[in-house]
Structures are given as structure tokens and as C-alpha cells.
TrEMBL record:
<dbReference type="GO" id="GO:0008810">
    <property type="term" value="F:cellulase activity"/>
</dbReference>
<feature type="domain" description="CBM10">
    <location>
        <begin position="20"/>
        <end position="56"/>
    </location>
</feature>
<feature type="signal peptide">
    <location>
        <begin position="1"/>
        <end position="19"/>
    </location>
</feature>
<feature type="domain" description="CBM1">
    <location>
        <begin position="157"/>
        <end position="193"/>
    </location>
</feature>
<dbReference type="Pfam" id="PF02013">
    <property type="entry name" value="CBM_10"/>
</dbReference>
<keyword id="KW-0624">Polysaccharide degradation</keyword>
<protein>
    <recommendedName>
        <fullName>Cellulase</fullName>
        <ecNumber>3.2.1.4</ecNumber>
    </recommendedName>
</protein>
<keyword id="KW-0732">Signal</keyword>
<dbReference type="GO" id="GO:0030245">
    <property type="term" value="P:cellulose catabolic process"/>
</dbReference>
<dbReference type="GO" id="GO:0005576">
    <property type="term" value="C:extracellular region"/>
</dbReference>
<keyword id="KW-0136">Cellulose degradation</keyword>
<keyword id="KW-0119">Carbohydrate metabolism</keyword>
<dbReference type="InterPro" id="IPR000254">
    <property type="entry name" value="CBD"/>
</dbReference>
<dbReference type="InterPro" id="IPR002883">
    <property type="entry name" value="CBM10/Dockerin_dom"/>
</dbReference>
<keyword id="KW-0378">Hydrolase</keyword>
<dbReference type="Pfam" id="PF00734">
    <property type="entry name" value="CBM_1"/>
</dbReference>
<feature type="domain" description="CBM10">
    <location>
        <begin position="69"/>
        <end position="104"/>
    </location>
</feature>
Amino acid sequence: MNKLTIFTILSALVTMAKADCFSTSMGYPCCSGCEDIYEDDDGKWGVENDDWCGIDEAKCNPSSNNDASCWSLPDYPCCEGDTVIYSDESGDWGVENDEWCGIVKSSATTSKEPTKTTTKKSTSTSSSSTEVLYPQYEEMECTPPDVFSYGQCCHGEDIEAYGKCGGKDWTGSTCCMVGTSCKEVNEWVSLCEPDPTAPIRPAVGPVGVHGKPWCKLPNCVVTENQMGYNWGYDVVNDEGCEIPEYECYDLINKTWGPQEYPVGTEKGVTTRYYDCCKPSCSWPGKADVTQPVRQCAMDGKTLLTDFSSPSACQTDVEGISHMCEDQQPWAVSDVLSYGFAAAALPGGESVSCCACYAITFSEPPIRGKQIVVQVTNTGADVGSNQFDLQIPGGGVGIFDACTNMYGLPSGSNGWGKKYGGIDKIEDCDSFPEALQAGCRWRFEFLLGADNPKMTFVEVECPKVLTDITGCIRN
């Protein structure tokens, strides 16, 4: 693009602005917004009111001048807290009052075991955990006042679906929102009509092409495709949501890696539970092991050495044996986690109890991520090749010892729904402190994926798992 040529063509449209940014000295105003479409040695440029303008970096990228500033303004508020839910090239994001907010750089909390996503720009279609994928566009020359904008030539603000985008004597915007294209109706009217093949653009406004809210990141799990449009599900509002294709492009197309453990070929599915009951593999005689899986008293910490102790979930006797609180998942990187699971595998418990499996998720937004689990349990509600991941807040399922163990209201089913558990990461704040990290893991590492499919293979048990359960297969 020849900026000087375009400047000459547009010079009649220029008005001087009283703003302090690099472009004013060249005769061009500062942009009121922050969307840049071109960059040269002078700085970043945008187009507003059919005119070139300079991006004010002090306003649009304050974090480059002050690490303690709130970089997410004006689009999103600053977070009051410092809990990182998601990260992208802009910075660290949190959620407060059911709304995304930017975390001030100087206050972001870093855990000793990294569990959040860190990203940097990449154009690869197979990426490591630190890369982020963006749509690729074929460059084209545009005739002013049109400019190259996300794979098409247009100018102005994005127009909502079925809004006017052209026609005889039309002087307004010609850029249609994502999922639509400007199509001629007659000589006088062109409208932004639905077009699933249109170039991918950032989402604007509160709703998508079909009038439903956009799915909020990192909820990029595609639950169905209708007429070429991807849909997700908002568990908080219990309704369908439209997938923002640009914002979700990375998570939908990314394959996390590299993997530290073998990628299996046996297909299965993961679910989740947390019932606080004595693990099935804690009973003696289940398998040829050094000892059964460790069990705990009601406090979740004190070990019970009598492996014949009745389970807190038994109805025929007063049970005292519970699941130990340290048997919960944790992340060691953006790609790898360790944890525990109930499973139903060929050969039964004599084969599976205390065995370990590398699970590689096969669906976005966590395709390529791995969790190595040790099997500590089974259940009548666990199907073939199903791994029921032991996640605090994952739902109690058939049995519930959590309500009594933690003094919860009668009939509360532990936390959340009986099957599936809680819906959002904020619910983890009400958990006992010892369970909060494992509860958040589902949203920070699994990115809220709901019962994702996977492949698995048996592996040698890592010491970090057997040190917790005390159970090693002979």
C-alpha cells in the first residue's frame, strides 16, 4: 500500500484535530478509536469518517507506557482482583460480575504451577501452547475510500445483519459484520445479508447474525453447526450462543503441544464427578497392588489405615471412609496435567485399579492437551472407555458424601447439579480452600470443555501420582 498516494487522494477530506499523537504533525487527526488497519515507520493508522487517522498509543496501549495501567479500557473494565482466567496477546483476562475484565499487569497472580494460557501471535496451523492462531487473508488492493479490512475492501464501522451497506448515492459504511456480506437488493439498496462464507471479522455488538448473544471466551466449544454457522452453549444463561469465529479461531483450530506422553489410539470420552466417597480401589483385594488407594477421615486429610473401613456412602452402616482432598487435578503446564479418575475398562478393576493412562483430548478448545490419570474408582454410572475425572465441583453423581463431609445444606448435591456440578469458575470461591484449585482447574486448564472426547493409552504411573495414593501395581 502506498500511504502517500492514498493521503493525496484523501487530502480534501482531512480536518485538523487537537490531539497529541504522531499523525497531527503530518496533517492527520488522531483516531477516536483503537482499531488499526495499517502500520508504517510513523506508527499505526486507522480510518474514521472516510479519513486516515493516527492511533494514539498512549490511549490504546497504555500498558506499553505503564505496566500498572489497565490495558483493557475502553472496551472492558479493569478487574478489581487478580485471578487469571484466560490470556491472549492483549494481556491477562479475568471475569467479574459475569463480565470480562482486564487484569492490571502489576497485580496478576502467578501460581507456582502454571495453569493459565499464555499466547503470542503465530500463523501456524499446528501450534505450541505459547502460540495463537489467526485467520489468514489474501491481500488485495482497494480503491479509496475503501481499505483492506479483514479479507475484504470496505470502509466505516461494521454494520449489523440486514443493515444497509450500499446503493446509489450511498455514502455510509460498507463493512458488514462477521457472518454477513453486502449484497445488492436493487439499484438503491444493498444489505448485509447472512453469508457463512464471508471473511472472518471480529465480533461487534452484543449479538450475532441470528440475534443470539455471542459466546463469551473461552467458551469456544462448538455444539452444533446450522447452515454453516457454528453454535455453542452458554451454561450460565442456559441458552445457545453464537460462536465468535475470529475470537474463537485460535481455540477452535489450535492443537496444543508438544505432548510429553504418548498419544493413544483407543477412543473414549471424559466426564467429571466428585462425590467424596471412599474410592473403590481403596478396598482390599481389588487388584495386585502394593496397597489400596489411600482413604481419609471426614476432614479429608487424616489417613485411615484400616482399608476395610466402611465408606461414607454406604447406607447399611455408618461409614467413616472418604476421598482424600489431595486426590484432585492440577496443571504442570499449559499442555499437561495430572489427576485421578473413575473408569470402566475391559478386565474390570483387577486390571484398572491404580493403573495410569495418558489421556489426549481430541476436540477443541483443548485438542492436544493431556492429563495423566491414575484410576482410583469405578461406578455403575461409568460406561465403557469412559474416564470420570475427579474434579471438585464436577457433580456428585449417584452417591453424595460431600454434603455431610462439608456441612452443606441438605439436598444440595454437594455443589451445583447432581450431574455436571457447577457452571462457572466464580462458584469455586465458595468451596473449602483445599478444593478451590482443583475446582478452578476445570475452567483454567480444560477451558470449560464439557465432557470432551479423547484418546488414551496406558503408561507407567508417574511418581507424583503414586506418592499421593500410595498405590502401585505389582
